[in-house]
Automatic annotation (TrEMBL):
Chief location: virion
Native organism: Pseudochrobactrum asaccharolyticum
The protein's name: HK97 family phage major capsid protein
Phage capsid-like C-terminal domain sequence ranges: 133-415
Lineage: superkingdom: Bacteria
SUPFAM superfamilies noted in UniProt: Major capsid protein gp5
Compartment annotation: Virion
InterPro entries according to UniProt: Phage_capsid, Phage_capsid-like_C
Length: 421
């Protein structure tokens, strides 16, 4: 990974620091990542002191409750900003001008810019023309969008991703149902069971955007048009993908991971069964015991790469939990590049996870790379359409992607609720 200068990190911090931080009594220099980390630690100390004060108090103090809520919101804002910086640090090694081992082709890029502005097609543009005709998707632009999706969509950063060139993808599964037995030297050998091979289909859905730019703006613009349009498209594609990877129903979109949990729509879809659930221990929230039960219910062989996937609202509730020795389970980042943790396990914020309420699946814990598979149909396609809506030029952009559970065994889900008496 390339070295990331403090100046570049400071610029990134200024862009990612939530506005809600401004005005709080605990301030941080948003041009200094170290100051932000120190600020979140100070805020956490103040939050915990206020929580302890509330626990010792025998009356419901409205002012104290408001102070706890205000500090907790600031802690969440600081930690979210630090998490954003951590993601940018992880992505800093990406060279936007290199695709794998292939350097960008300046002649090709210039030709694509000409096509974006005026529809001009030169001989060099044939490098990006698909066999079905009419689409021009230069590899340089395609991979730029994919890389940015990995930065924005947390699931993409942790799941297994494959690229295909066909219309769909099927996975073979071995049920390992082979039999064996002990026999004597001359005893008859009865036939034992034979393992069976099953298949699971990962259908592709299509996501599209159809932005329009006036012809005059295209003629007069002095900006990098393909980069600008890629920025606009990637933000919307990432938002839609993030929702689908978590809760998509599989109709023209991926099968979301939550649909494979016990009792959900796809609980019987996978040959290995559903993702097992563990109860939180409270009717509408979390308990320390429930979260520890969740972590230790996962088989040891999957713990090495396991992480906690949950929403910001859930983390707010987790910050107040203690173990049997009075230690807080949630810990903030203590250095740039280190995530917040719960009981020593890394936390990944998924904005689309349900908030903690009765019967909700609010937390996932496990190895996302071994659990969830994203299938990309290679190629972001762009169709330039100057005819349909004059004087605007439409850039019809599409991407085909599928997703589903590859193996439910390396993942556990926390369901809000108490065991039945």
């Amino acid at each position: 990974m390339k070295n990331v200068s403090m100046m570049s990190l400071a610029s990134a911090t200024a862009l990612t620091t939530p506005r809600a931080i401004i005005g709080h009594t605990i301030k941080a220099d948003n041009s200094d990542p170290k100051a932000m980390i120190a600020a979140v630690q100070t805020a956490v100390t103040e939050l915990r002191a206020s929580i302890d004060e509330k626990m010792k108090s025998k009356v419901d103090d409205t002012v104290l409750n408001e102070r706890i809520a205000r500090i907790d919101a600031s802690v969440g804002n600081f930690q979210s900003a630090i998490d954003g910086l951590n993601a940018q640090v992880a992505a800093a090694g990406i060279n936007q001008n290199v695709i794998g081992d292939l350097p960008a082709d300046p002649e090709y890029v210039n030709a694509f810019k000409a096509h974006m502005r005026k529809g001009d097609v030169q001989a060099s543009m044939s490098k990006g023309t698909d066999t079905d005709g009419g689409y021009l998707a230069p590899v340089e632009w395609d991979r730029t969008i994919t890389n940015k999706l990995k930065e924005v969509s947390p699931i993409r950063s942790h799941a297994r991703i494959i690229s295909i060139t066909s219309a769909g993808f099927k996975k073979l599964f071995n049920d390992r149902a082979i039999g064996s037995g002990w026999v004597g030297e001359t005893a008859a050998r009865a036939e034992t069971s034979t393992p069976k091979i099953g298949t699971l289909d990962f259908p592709l859905g299509e996501i599209y955007a159809n932005p329009a730019i006036s012809q005059q703006l295209l003629d007069d613009a002095a900006i990098n048009l393909e980069a600008w349009l890629a920025d606009e498209v990637q933000a919307e594609f990432a938002r839609q993908e993030g929702i689908a990877f978590v809760s998509g129903n599989g109709t023209n979109k991926p099968h979301g991971i939550l649909t494979y949990v016990e009792g959900a729509a796809n609980a019987a879809r996978h040959p290995f069964g559903a993702i097992k659930t563990v109860l939180s221990g409270a009717d509408a929230g979390f308990t320390a015991d429930g979260l520890i039960d969740l972590i230790y219910d996962l088989p040891a062989e999957f713990r090495a790469n396991a992480k906690i996937f949950t929403s910001r609202q859930s983390q707010s509730a987790m910050r107040k939990l203690k173990d049997g020795q009075g230690n807080y389970l949630w810990q903030p980042s203590y250095a740039l590049g280190q995530p917040a943790t719960l009981a020593g396990e890394q936390i990944v914020e998924l904005a689309d996870m349900p908030k903690p309420e009765a019967d909700a699946i609010s937390v996932l814990y496990g190895d996302m790379d071994a659990t969830y598979l994203i299938v990309d149909r290679i190629g972001i396609r762009v169709l330039r359409d100057p005819f349909t809506n004059k004087p605007f030029v439409h850039f019809y952009t599409t991407k085909r992607v599928g997703g589903g559970v590859h193996n439910p065994e390396p993942m556990r889900a926390l369901k809000i609720g108490k065991p039945t008496p």
